[in-house]
Amino acid sequence: MSRWLALLPLVALAALAVLFGVYSLKRDPQVQPDALVGKPVPELTLPRLDDGRPAPLRAALGEGPALVNIFASWCAPCEIEHPVLVDLRRQGVRIIGVAYKDAPENTKAFLGRLGDPFAERLVDRDGRAGIELGVTGVPETYLVGADGVILAKHTGPLTPETARALMAKARR
């Protein structure tokens, strides 16, 4: 009887391994959570990078469609997508940058080195705004319509092609 009791934890562990294995096989790793698409931008107030004054995210969006780009100076893919953001800014796209879990001095150095494509620069030092937005990692970009509703979300670095596809959703 005591042998069976000793084997019980191993049987439970094997059952859990099978359960997680079956879950993994049925899960699609390409699915990206877009829970906020079709919903208004959350009521968030974040400090500005330049002076630390609080700025409501909705007010920073301005009028018309805008992009909200979640980035960080420590993020290598963010550096890869940066020229695409600079090009979008040259085309007149309003982009709000949210520095995610980053020290302000590092963010300023990053933007100083690569150029600043952002109309407004906000700081999410502790990541709480990222939780509200449903950020799964950086970089992430949200397309927000003139009415403040999130029209689309792109996870990963923007390329010229994905940027065009994202902006096409603003014209629908």
Q: Using the CA coordinates, give the radius of gyration.
A: 21 Å
**Could you tell me how far the N terminus lies from the C terminus, measured between alpha carbons in angstroms?**
69 Å
- Tell me roughly what share of residues is in helical segments: 40-55%
Given the C-alpha coordinates, what overall shape results?
A: elongated
Q: Characterize the largest beta sheet: strand count, sense, and whether it forms a barrel.
A: 5 strands, mixed
Per DSSP E runs of 2 or more residues, the count of β-strands stands at 7
Order of helices and strands: HEEHEHEHEHEEH
Q: List low-pLDDT spans.
A: none
Class inferred from helices and paired strands: alpha/beta
Number of helices: 6
Strand content: 15-25%
Mean pLDDT: 90
What's the multimeric state? single chain
Physical arrangement of strands within the biggest beta sheet = 5-4-3-6-7
Give structural notes.
By secondary structure, this protein is an alpha/beta fold. The protein is built from 6 helices and 7 strands. The protein has helices at residues 2-26, 57-61, 76-90, 104-114, 128-133, 160-168; strands spanning 45-47, 54-56, 66-71, 94-100, 120-124, 140-144, 150-155. The strands form 2 sheets. The chain has a 5-stranded mixed β-sheet with strand order 5-4-3-6-7. The protein has a two-stranded antiparallel sheet with strand order 1-2. The N and C termini lie far apart (69 Å).
